[in-house]
Amino acid sequence: MKQERNLYGNLHRKQGIHSNTKQAARFGRRAGILALLLLTVFLGLERYGKEQLARELSEKIIRFHVRANSDSEKDQELKLAVRDEIGAYMQEELAGIRDLAQSRRKVLQDLEEIERRARQVIAEKGCGYEVSASLAKVDFPEKTYGTYTFPAGEYEALQVVIGQGKGKNWWCVMYPNMCFQGSVYEVIEEEAEASLKQVLTAREYDALMKSGNYRIKWKWLSFLDPLFESF
Description:
By secondary structure, the protein is an alpha+beta fold. Helix content is 58%, strand content 19%.
């Protein structure tokens, strides 16, 4: 009789442990599903926020885009030489302009001169590539300049294409000037801040500063990893 009670007690304990294990597993799966839903909502809001910021920025800035003929070392060096020539020239041309419409008109007026200067640099480097300059809508990837991260999106840009334009690209912000100091390509934080605050609202500027922090948020969300392992 005593042996039967011990067997019954052992069986009851095993059933209790098994039941607790099943409950824990169900809780883990539910928690994982909830975490997945929260993460989906977060990612959706993140994407919407970046897309909205890109649309707002595209209405206030002009970017600068140079496409190299190829990825050869010589063509990439040529791209940077053209960049420096055009960037320094346009910095002077746009100096004192505080209006996007005026900047756009100035770029359009200077397209012929921009091409002439680019051809001159190309010839000086011993190349015979054609070059074209235009003010166009261009798809940009997410790019960081100093502490400022511009989200991916379609932006108006001065686009300079060298030769076949199949090499690695170079991007920056031409108006307001963020990338050139004199004849040198350089992002100076204080100058960039002053330039951006002249054309962006306080909310847009703050959003631009925060745009590059999503990678930190990804690391912060790493505590969710064990929940997904329960599936």
